[in-house]
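Running this now, will post back.
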Amino acid sequence: MTHATSPLNGPAGGGSGGMARLFSAISMIARFGLWLGGGIITLAALLIGCDVTLRVVLGYAIDGTDELARFALAISTTWALAGALLDRAHIRVDTAYARFPGTMRLAMDLAGLVAFFLVFALIFYYGLGLVGESWANQTRSPSALQVPMVIPQAVWLLGITIFLVADLVLFAMALKLIFSGRSDAASALIGMKSAEEEVQEELDAADAAALHERTGS
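Update: finished.
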């Protein structure tokens, strides 16, 4: 059984030059975003756990836990967007998709990237205005922490920025592959994962876990 390499581990279609280097760079940033988002959510979960424990045992609450958890959820979501896009992890309804010919599926995948960009470009536009307003007014959160809102908002907006760049790079890479007569590689880059690919990924993950248990590393 074969499967396409995840773009987060290297461009599925290969290539050289500036476009390939840009793709590799955005893939590394997207991978970092996944780790950052996971780390932030983990820290938020630990903080909430400590807060709940203190409430039950000592009757003491940590101020601002709910606020920090909201910041964590928002930031981790936007920073994970690029990684999910490059790894083709976004959920898509494939009831009709699988029945279409390859050319139509590829056209729909390209249209999906365009739609992604337009929607998040609109979010970025209004988010940029929000960050600017928070900066100008020195807005702070209404909780006891008094967090300058421009900080979490700017980090949140940076995640969307990375996603938009990743979307453009992915679109350009797909077009480059199509125009060079490598439509199959373009489909592997931006198309939905096949059942075989998903099964293979699960098998690879299971093998990696088993190896980790045997080696203890």
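The mean pLDDT is 82. More later if anyone needs it.
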